[in-house]
Amino acid sequence: MSAHASGQTSFEVVGSRALGMGGAFVAVADDSSAVFWNPAGLANGQPAGATIEWVRFRFGNQDAPPTTGPWRRSAKFVSLGTWPIGLSYSNFQDTRIGPGADGSLEVQRFSTNQYGATVLQTLVEGLVIGTTVKYVRGTVATGAAVEPTVGDVLDAAADRDGKSSGTFDLDAGAMFDGRVFRLGWTVRNLRSPRFEGPAGTEIELKRQSRVGLAIFPADGLIFALDLDVSTADLLTGPERMLALGAERLFSPRFAVRGGARRNLEGARSTVGSVGASIAIKPGTWLDGHFTHGRARGERGFGFALRAGW
Q1: Which of 7, 65, 98, 292 is deepest in the core (most CB within 10 A)?
Q2: 99-108 pLDDT, tens per residue?
Q3: What's the predicted TM-score (pTM) here?
Q4: What is the CATH number of the domain that holds 49?
Q5: 200 φ, ψ (degrees, to nearest 5)
Q6: For 168-195, what is each residue's pLDDT tens digit?
């Protein structure tokens, strides 16, 4: 019998703009990163847009001797979105150090390459649904944590060969636009695909659901709240997030944002975030964000090039 585990992708892994708002973005999503956060949000953006970005998170002292708990998470994301359709590619990697079956330290890496196509449909005025059909190729790799430091163990795991398999999956979202507010709902991994790893291991991408509210009290000002309906069983532990965020556009060329998210499961930790955007030319933005969680020692940062026409 295989050893079964969950390896869901955290919502807070894509979108430098979204992460700068603490991850409160399901009802805000109005750029091409909506294909990840809420496919229906493409209808609220410009007729066409594109995003290229890189994000990285880590937890634990990377220079310390290996021990149970430290992890690293990274993402690469490319998307092209229009009002009727969207296309995307993403690469997600989660690596953690934990106990092996024999009690020794083990490092496990779960990575996926995802290719998605998004389609929108307006049901009634103000209410749009979106669906992303995606091909997911997952790789599970495990091995002994024998390197001298945490950072060395996690670096070595990134190059370790694993067992790969592929399957199709679905994401879906809905967005209601009330002009001064928006309501959003996203469900990811509707088919809950499973990926076999070496030595009888198995990783499942369980279904995830999140709802969001965005309020627009004035031009260029957004307040947002997100809540996970379901608990995500990540390699790094259970997560069910409550996220709050705000964004302020100060001029056509400069915006700032901030937020925080709290895990309502497991360690119940809080992570704060800040972010900013600079328009390098009209319609083309350079986004950046930084996250910090003092209680868990979590750090994260990322950059994105975002354009809309």
Answers
A1: 7
A2: 877 778 888 8
A3: 0.88
A4: 2.40.160.60
A5: 80, 10
A6: 999 999 999 998 999 999 999 999 999 9
